[in-house]
Amino acid sequence: MIKEVVELVEQADFSGGLFLEDNESIGLAFLQNFNDIWASLMDDNILRIGIYGIRGVGKTTLAKRVHDKLLNEPKYSPHVCWASISQEFSIYKLQNSIALALKIGISKESDEKKKAVELFRELKNQGRFVLILDDLSKQIDTENIGIPLGMDGCKLIITSRSLEVCQQMGCQKIIKVNTLTEKKAWELFSNKLNSVEFLPEAEDICKQMAKRCSGLPLALATLAGSTKGVTGIHEWRDVSKELNKSCMGQANMGNGVMSILLYSFNCLKDPKLKSCFLYCSLYPEDYDIPRDELIANFISEELIDRRLSRRSAFDQGHAILNELEKACLVEIQTDREIVKMHDLIREMAITITEHNPRYMVKAGLELTEIPKVQNWTEDLDKVSLMDNNIDGISPGTSPKCPRLSSLILSKNPLKFIPECFFEQMCGLCVLNLSETSIEQLPNSISDLRNSKHYCSVNVQILYMCHHWRSSKN
User: Which one of 29, 56, 225, 287 is most buried, by most CB atoms within 10 A?
Assistant: First the structure.
């Protein structure tokens, strides 16, 4: 019975709550687009399908719905691959992502052309498959990647903000995801609030607030999530005033939608919620953030209250992430125990951390060396250089960052750290060197003994040393 209930819930859930199937006026356009894509997938003459629309309109949501149904479609399952394309696109990374998703055994060959030949051969042998490329910003040559389009049953779905990209990719079926009409936007907003009824004056205020979201489901859901619990007319007037102030006073946020997201962040009254939310932006765009790893870092950084036991502290961390999910600022995939941030929301978080607190986030940007010393300012609180191509740090490099509490260097082919590198990082709490090639730590790591957080750093280093020993054995 539990299994049946879970299946029914999954069938009824559109986009994590952004669309409600039981509300025909909101779900109809979404369902029509879904049916058009599905019909194209079943048509052997259509090999490439494009989905386009502005940021936050629901392209990824629609593509994910298609992906999930394909996993249960005998015609294609299990040969269905999803790949998120960040702004710093890499053919090599995409080739590895496809191979991993489809469980294809290819070599660690660094030459993209040779890798493409291997991938092409393996995919051709597999027969039917569907590749979904999410958020493609420019044309790419599928042959250079090793995708055998044109073979029987090989399909490509792309999402993009640009109609031109869909056309350049040769999409035979192109679907535009439109913003919601004012009426549908209001219905979505009021449904997300779970409000039974409004006083006439309060309803007028709420409708004006919903109108500011420009028909974007992401903005509507986030704004509704930040105003849940507001009931009285005086509260709604105050909320509306604060929203107007946010939209008018944030020129650096670029557009009205970003200002609405910033307002939702400012509605987090508990500083712990804000700090934990901003910490999520240290991970690369579209990254699957391990939930337990994230909470462990919250604890090491003392972003949450001290508790008598680690289990109790983890409970508090889970509660904080759940609150952020309710506010629609993060997405939690419980079945995989991961946390994700929408790229627009992450962009907003990074903009905040350009000032206070001060972060330097250059994760997943294909860097081959660390930023110049002048970029390591004394007021830096956290630095993330994870998921790049940094293989060493120049001798003599010693950034003066006394406030730095988190330094994430994971997922780099890093082999060498200078002896003096940590000498001026006395406040370091979290040092992540996982998935690097480091075999010997510099003696300057001992300078962290002067930090009250030394134990948390020490625990992580011991874990990594154990990992090295295990891999060598």
Answer: 56
pTM score over 0.85:
no
| Residue that is last in its domain, among 299, 314, 341 | 341
Give the 3-state secondary structure of residue 303: coil
Structure tokens at 291: 């939930």
Residue environment code for 386-396, b if the CB has 16+ CB neighbours within 10 A, otherwise e: bbbebebbeee
Domain count, the chain: 4
Per-residue tens of pLDDT for the chain, all 473 residues = 555 555 554 554 333 333 333 334 346 788 899 999 999 998 888 999 999 999 889 999 999 999 999 988 887 777 888 888 876 677 888 888 888 777 777 766 677 888 888 888 888 877 788 899 999 988 888 888 888 876 667 889 999 999 999 999 999 999 999 998 888 888 888 888 875 466 677 888 888 898 888 888 989 989 988 888 787 888 888 988 888 877 765 544 445 688 888 989 999 989 999 999 999 999 998 899 999 999 999 998 889 888 878 899 999 999 999 999 988 899 998 777 999 999 889 999 999 999 889 999 999 888 999 999 999 999 999 999 999 999 999 998 999 999 999 999 999 999 989 988 998 888 888 888 888 988 888 877 776 653 433 333 433 443 344 344 444 43
Are residues 135 and 218 part of one domain?
A: no
The reply to whether 131 and 8 lie within a common domain is yes
Domain ranges, residue 193: 182-266
346 occurs within a structural domain: no
Residue 348 domain flag? no
Q: Which of 143, 176, 209 is the last residue of a domain?
A: 176
Q: Give Cα separations from 241 to 217, 256, 289 (angstroms).
A: 22, 15, 35
Q: Are residues 163 and 43 in the same domain?
A: yes
Task: Tell me whether residue 132 is in a domain.
Answer: yes
| Residues 141 and 120: beta-carbon distance below 8 Å | no
Q: Count helices and strands (H / E) in the chain.
A: 17, 14
Scan for tokens 């957080």, then name that residue. 453
Q: Are residues 6 and 57 in the same domain?
A: yes
